[in-house]
């Protein structure tokens, strides 16, 4: 039995001259219900609320204004669920709507709640249908995308594989719509390879958000948690059917050989840092090569305002992010402690190793 997370983007759900949105959803539902019938567990992360809302209002373009985007999503979300509900219930399966915001997942308690609810639904053989809670989260609609959400969901349910379906057959060395000689890429083995690909990743289509960049960011999150990511062509439903039966297609992002545990993965990816600590060379070396906690003596500068146990970025003297973690002191306490440490001659732990995650490890 496998646990799959399948993400379907707006570019596919808008439909085309040959297929309406309802027909596209119908064909995915056939693949998803076949997978459930084989005894697998599946979570679906689906975009499409804005696109369907726009269709309903007769808009030929995605609105630029964020409030208008939120309002179109509120119209489209009900329609989106109605289509999945009809297609899955006709095949004897129940669907459940789960709307999440990024800030929900930033709270450890709410992240755990989301994880428990999703796992309960999976135990009951239900298909959870997840989308961003767009009507309430303007930030996500402006900058966000469902690719990152799908990776966070895959981590929360401890999925085996994350399938990201889109309107291109695989990853290329650069945007194939712009560069006809872009090279196809079948396997990505290490986060270092992702860094170069991220630089070359292009924008998405007019209806999608984020293009290839957000898919690579999602692959980074999921593979760091030990999840295999498959980026594949969603225009042909046979591809999804094949993937769910273990056939290879598109690009495979292989899981990191030393995956982060659930809590560290949450720390590294679901949390938004509220401040930045600039470290000296000695502290960077201790963190990177000696598995040490961050001590006060290695902190040079503090930026931002945060309370004790809130997330911060740790940067090296060149300004590059080295790690993230929970700071044991508030920003005010930390600034005060840096000023007085010379006289007290003690160096308390500022970020304990247990709540610290190195980037690109
Ligand atoms: N390096 C790349 N490899 C493949 N596709 C790319 C790349 N850079 C940009 N793209 C474009 O990204 C698009 C998919 O992203 P997007 O429109 O956001 O889709 P979705 O709605 O499925 O999330 C593709 O149509 C493709 O043209
Ligand atoms: N939550 C939004 C999706 C945002 C979006 O466009 O995502 P995607 O198509 O996956 O790049 C919606 O349902 O329309």
Description:
The structure is a single chain. This protein has about 350 residues and is of the alpha/beta class. It folds into two domains: about 260 residues, Acetylglutamate kinase-like (Carbamate kinase, 3-Layer(aba) Sandwich); about 90 residues, PUA domain (Archaeosine Trna-guanine Transglycosylase, Chain: A, domain 4, Roll), CATH 2.30.130. The strands form four sheets. The protein has an eight-stranded mixed β-sheet with strand order 3-4-2-1-5-9-10-8, sandwiched between helices. It has a five-stranded mixed β-sheet with strand order 13-11-14-15-17, sandwiched between helices. A hairpin with a 5-residue loop joins strand 14 and strand 15. Helix 2 crosses helix 4 and helix 2 packs parallel to helix 11. The model has no long low-confidence stretch (mean pLDDT about 90). The structure holds adenosine-5'-diphosphate (ADP) and the ligand N[C@@H](CCC(=O)OP(=O)(O)O)C(=O)O. Ligand VHF binds next to helix 3, strand 4 and helix 8.
User: Which CATH architecture of the largest domain is right?
Assistant: 3-Layer(aba) Sandwich
- As a percent range, the share of helical residues equals 40-55%
Task: Tell me what portion of residues adopts beta-strand conformation.
Answer: 15-25%
Question: What is the top-level CATH class of the largest domain?
Answer: Alpha Beta
Strand order of the largest sheet: 3-4-2-1-5-9-10-8
Overall body shape: globular
Q: Give the count of structural domains.
A: 2
* CATH-defined fold name of the largest domain: Carbamate kinase
Pathway: Amino-acid biosynthesis; L-proline biosynthesis; L-glutamate 5-semialdehyde from L-glutamate: step 1/2
Subcellular location: Cytoplasm
EC number: 2.7.2.11
GO biological process, one term: L-proline biosynthetic process
């Amino acid at each position: 039995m496998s646990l799959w997370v399948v993400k379907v983007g707006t570019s596919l759900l808008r439909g085309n001259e040959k297929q309406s949105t309802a027909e596209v959803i119908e064909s995915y539902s056939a693949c998803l219900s076949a997978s459930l019938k084989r005894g697998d567990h599946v979570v679906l992360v689906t975009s499409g609320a804005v696109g369907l809302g726009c269709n309903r209002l007769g808009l030929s373009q995605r609105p630029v204004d964020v409030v208008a985007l939120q309002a179109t999503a509120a119209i489209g979300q009900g329609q989106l669920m109605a289509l999945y509900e009809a297609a899955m219930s006709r095949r004897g399966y129940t669907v459940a709507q789960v709307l999440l915001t990024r800030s929900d997942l930033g709270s450890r308690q709410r992240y755990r709640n989301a994880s428990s609810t999703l796992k309960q639904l999976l135990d009951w053989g239900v298909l959870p249908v997840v989308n961003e809670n767009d009507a309430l989260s303007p930030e996500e609609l402006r900058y966000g995308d469902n690719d990152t959400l799908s990776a966070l969901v895959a981590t929360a349910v401890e999925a085996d594989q994350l399938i990201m379906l889109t309107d291109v057959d695989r990853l290329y060395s650069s945007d194939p719509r712009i560069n006809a000689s872009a090279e196809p890429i079948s396997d990505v083995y290490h986060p270092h390879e992702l860094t170069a690909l991220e630089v070359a990743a292009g924008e998405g289509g007019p209806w999608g958000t984020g293009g290839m960049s957000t898919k690579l960011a999602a692959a980074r999150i999921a593979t760091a948690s030990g999840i295999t990511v498959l980026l594949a062509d969603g225009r042909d439903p046979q591809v999804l059917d094949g993937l769910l039966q273990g056939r290879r297609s598109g690009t495979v992002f292989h899981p990191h050989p030393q995956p982060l545990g659930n809590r560290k993965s949450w720390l590294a990816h679901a949390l938004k840092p509220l401040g930045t600590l600039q470290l000296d060379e000695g502290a960077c070396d201790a963190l990177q090569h000696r598995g040490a906690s961050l001590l006060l003596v290695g902190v040079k500068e503090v930026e931002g305002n945060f309370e004790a146990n809130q997330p911060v970025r740790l940067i090296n003297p060149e300004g590059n992010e080295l790690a993230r973690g929970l700071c044991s002191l508030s920003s005010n306490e930390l600034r005060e402690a840096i000023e007085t440490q010379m006289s007290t001659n003690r160096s308390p732990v500022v970020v304990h190793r247990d709540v610290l995650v190195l980037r690109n490890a």
